[in-house]
Design a protein that fits this description.
Blueprint lengths: L12 E6 L5 H10 L3 E4 H8 L5 H10 L12 H8 L3 H29 L5 E4 L3 H4 L7 E6 L2 H12 L3 H10 L3 H5 L4 E4 L4 H16 L4
Parallel strand pairs: 1-3, 1-4, 2-3, 4-5
Bound molecules: adenosine-5'-diphosphate.
Adenosine-5'-diphosphate binds next to α1, α7 and α10.
Length: 211
């Protein structure tokens, strides 16, 4: 898509994805400060589990009533224990939760466009490609980062140990698998300033309708 003139009448929806600690949230914050409407799929994920939603009932049916904690909500720790290290169960869970997130994201995109038709919308989603949400967005921005830097940033952000981060990175799509699908690749292995510069370049291209 790069280099062609953007001719769509409706506002643009950027899909923003990337590996753990690659800088998705940092990039989204910057785009928000420049006027974008940001939808955080992770936050929608938390809403998907809430009491009496369709996903809530499907989780209870699939994983048992003991997944509900004393407060009546799904206990994410208990649920996590039930799917940990069991790919089929994890798959069953994502097949419940991802469609709910997708529905909420599509609704929020519509709402954002109705409120401010010219405003760029950003859908920030770690699992955008895995969940197959590319059709919700017009262009795909992918943040990439060298593995050792991802481990360093994730451990200092989350207080988790390096081995756990590395295991998560190895279980996710690789940088190459993501960039193969990207319209824009943002390399965030450098400084915050370097990140901002790349974002600015691509943001200005959008404003000039050249993407
Ligand atoms: P993601 O949302 O992809 O998991 P974040 O945006 O949360 O990643 O970034 C991971 C951590 O690294 C955060 O603590 C963030 O403040 C920090 N960070 C992001 N980009 C840079 C950078 N270029 N230089 C230094 N620290 C960074």
């Amino acid at each position: 898509m790069s280099g062609c003139v953007y001719q769509k009448e409706t506002p643009l929806i950027i899909g923003l994805t990337g590996g753990i600690a690659s800088g998705k949230s940092t990039a989204a914050e910057t785009l928000h400060s420049w006027g974008a409407y940001v939808i955080d799929a992770d936050k929608l994920g938390h809403r998907a589990y809430l009491k009496d939603t369709a996903a809530f009932h499907a989780i209870v049916d699939t994983f048992g009533a003991d997944t509900v904690g004393e407060d009546g909500e799904i206990d994410r720790r208990i649920l996590g224990g039930k799917v940990f290290g069991q790919p089929e169960k994890l798959e069953a869970l994502t097949q419940i939760v991802w469609p709910s997130i997708r529905t909420m994201a599509a609704q929020e995109i519509k709402l954002a466009q109705a409120q401010a038709p010219a405003r760029v919308v950003v859908l920030e989603a770690a699992v955008l490609l895995e969940a197959g949400w590319q059709d919700l967005v017009d262009i795909l921005w992918v943040t990439v980062i060298e593995k050792n830097i991802a481990i360093k940033r994730a451990t200092s952000r989350d207080g988790v140990d390096a081995a756990a981060v590395e295991a998560r990175i190895n279980s996710q799509l690789s940088n190459a698998e993501r960039t193969a699908k990207a319209d824009v690749v943002i390399d965030n292995s450098g400084s915050l300033n370097e990140l901002q510069k790349q974002l600015q370049t691509h943001w200005l291209k959008l404003e000039h309708k050249q993407i």
